[in-house]
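Hello Y.,

Per our agreement to keep a running log of every chain we model this quarter, I'm adding this entry. I've kept the format consistent with earlier entries: sequence first, then predicted structure.
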Amino acid sequence: MAGYYQKTGCLDRPRPGQFRLRLEPPLINAAKTVENKSDELNLSAWKGWQMEKLSCFTHGTVVCDLESTEKYLAIHELLKEAPVFRDVDGIDHLEKAVVRREKLQSTGLGNGVAVAHGKTPSVGDIVMALGISRRGIEFDAMDGKPVHFLFLVANPPGMQLEYLLALSILVRVIRDERFREELLRCYDTVEIESRLHQAFRASMLRRGFPFN
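Predicted structure for the entry above:
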C-alpha cells in the first residue's frame, strides 16, 4: 500500500490503481446521530464559546504515519507521538479513559474513520488529534473495514456542550469523501493540520459559531 503514495507533499489527483475510500452509510449515520444529540441541547449556551477552548488541529496535533495496526496499540502510539499531548499531566490516566470508553463500544464509524474519545481531568480544555494509518488499523468498525483515520478527542469534566459541538463538527468535516482522500495522499504534517484547521473553521462559521 505504501508504494501507492508519494512520500513528500500532497498529491492533487490519485494515480491509477491508487487506494480510495468509498462513501458508505455508516459515517453519514454517525454524523446524523451526533448532530441529533447536539440539537437536543440548549445551543444558545454555545454563543459565547470561543474556539481557543480546544486544540483544533494546530501545530502538533497530527501524526501522519501510524505504525500500529491494532487499535489499542494505535491509541497508545497516537498519545505518545502527538506533540499536543506531551504537556498533559497524567497521560496514562487519559489513555485508560479512552481505552475504557472504547471497550464499551467501538468508535470505528466506518469509511476508514474512528473517533476515540475519553473524559478526564488530565486536560483543562478539549484536545483533538489525528493519527493516519496507511496500512489500516483493525478497529471493529461498523462496516468491518480497517481504520485509516484515528481521531482522538479528550475533554475535561464539565465541558459536555463543547465536546458535542466539537464532535459534531469533526464528523461533518471528515464524512467528505474527497477531503479524506486528499488527507490520505498527504505526507506533510503541517499541510494536513492546515487543511483540517481550515475545514473545521469553515464548518464552525457556517453553523454560526464564533471562531477566534
